[in-house]
Amino acid sequence: MSIHKVVMKVDVLAVVGSKRREGNTASLVAEVTKSLENHGLNVKTINLDDYRIEGCRGCEACSDDSTCIIEDGMMDIYPLISEADAIVLASPTYFYNVTSDMKSFIDRTYCLMHFHPEDRSVWTSENEIHGTKHAVTVAVCEQKDIADMGFTSQAMELSLQALGYRVIENIRALHMFGPDDASSDADTLQSARNAGIKLARMLSMTRNLKSEKNER
């Protein structure tokens, strides 16, 4: 008798751009994903530090077939991005921006964009072609002033929007320097849980509406 392994679809991909495996960013992402899993969704969480990811070379080779020619860790991540109906991007603030790991990841999603061959002001993305997806971002900063977070949250949100994601929640966690600060901040933890619940409800509603439409 042959045994076939059942592989569950990845509903949500969570991408963590912090090198601290049990730090504030990881803690908040865990709260988001718990809410998603409690609603029956399959979540795949990856730590970018586990992958060797080069920066984008700007070579435009991907313009031929939307495939990046750099063979590194992103080759394992691209299929997950494609499969998942939603994504969670999370990064601590490094010098007013996302970490270098997260920046390389974001830049390498450039191959998922499409530009008109004669007018680069005309562009779209893989998600827009196949249907809008949804996203949540998590940005963490050690300072109390939101200005000190700089572009961290924006860098993730604007990039996701360009890629055809509707960002439904941006978590901005301030005054998080010690690695356990987030785990003891009840309000911030609840914000993360609520973001997960909101994303789960959005996916459920969208899927139900698509199913009803297909049945008509």
Strand content: 15-25%
- Please tell me what the overall shape is: globular
Strand order of the largest sheet: 2-1-3-6-7
Q: Give the helix level as a range of percent.
A: 25-40%
Q: How many helical stretches?
A: 6
Largest sheet: 5 strands, parallel
Structural class: alpha/beta
Order of helices and strands: EHEHEHEEHEHEH
Task: Compute the CA-based radius of gyration.
Answer: 18 Å
Mean pLDDT: 92
- What gap, in angstroms, lies between the N and C termini? 41 Å
Poorly predicted runs: none
Structure summary, number of beta strands: 7
Topology summary:
Blueprint: E1 12-16, H1 24-38, E2 43-47, H2 74-83, E3 86-92, H3 100-108, E4 113-116, E5 119-125, H4 126-130, E6 133-140, H5 152-162, E7 165-173, H6 186-215
Parallel strand pairs: 1-2, 1-3, 3-6, 6-7
Antiparallel strand pairs: 4-5
Helix pairs in contact: 1-6
